[in-house]
Write a structure and sequence with these properties.
Distance between the termini: 44 Å
Helix content: 40-55%
CATH class: Alpha Beta
Radius of gyration: 18 Å
Largest sheet: 4 strands, parallel
Bound molecules: adenosine-3'-5'-diphosphate
Shape: globular
Length: about 290
Amino acid sequence: MDLPRPELFDFHGVSMTHYFTDNWENVQNFKARPDDIVIATYPKAGTTWVSYILDLLYFRQTLPERETTVPIYDRVPFLEFFMPSFSGTDMADMLTTSPRIIKTHLPVQFIPKSFWEQNCKIVYCARNAKDNVVSYFHFDRMDSGQPEPGDWSSFLQRFKDGRMVFGSWYDHVCGWWDKKQMYSKIHYMFFEDLVEDTGREIKCLSSFLGLSTSEEEKEKIRRDVQFDVMKANRVTNLTNETSLDFSVSQFLRKGKVGDWKNHFTVAQNEQFDQHYKQKMKNTTLHFRTEV
Ligand code: A3P
């Protein structure tokens, strides 16, 4: 039976849907372990890409069979996601591999406190606002678990207003950026850098995580996480995900920097730039919209 699309509502000042708030107590009381690795992102900023890189860095050599059998969303539980039959917190608790790699889209103020208490390593991946909103629009068109996207121009307006699932992109990327200045175990990385030089970013990740991955293995990972390779790979292309309608769009859709140019009108771009300047005036965080 198809479920109706969820409605957005205000949750402690952040727009959310019930899928990410129904298990709130368990999420907030989640017991992190010191070696947990968190991958945090605003939706559509490259979460799956980074999750897969981290999983390969940790497990390919010891558990090669899982690379062809276990979908990435089962290897990297989505902490706050909840359905009555299934919860991210239970999945994380039931993982048999160590360290646990745990994905979240929560804005920084919602992160369960045990991750800070346990001094866990966190990888935050951010993507420029223009490509992020385009990717989010196409995803919401294909994902019946998301609110109705409406047309492109109303979606863009909602994005500017912060009325998206997981709230304002501006608050998310800036909130995590501010936290990084105080908490040294955040590796803040950018989707655009990953596109520009995936090998370099894999090296940075490996060194942040304190791994001694061989050059040969890093090169192998670089090849296996290329867009076309991940798109052809059943464990990363999400084709088994029943809420996604692949006749509407693709999960691995374009994987580019600058696709926003195919969506924004000249007027939308001018208005967006003006609004962006205002919203980002107090931060040192800088994004590239082309590489
Ligand atoms: P597009 O919709 O612009 O193509 P998330 O995993 O956070 O939902 O992010 C999805 C976005 O990351 C999609 O962007 C997807 O194509 C892109 N992506 C995923 N894997 C990628 C890869 N290997 N190379 C480039 N982009 C990738």
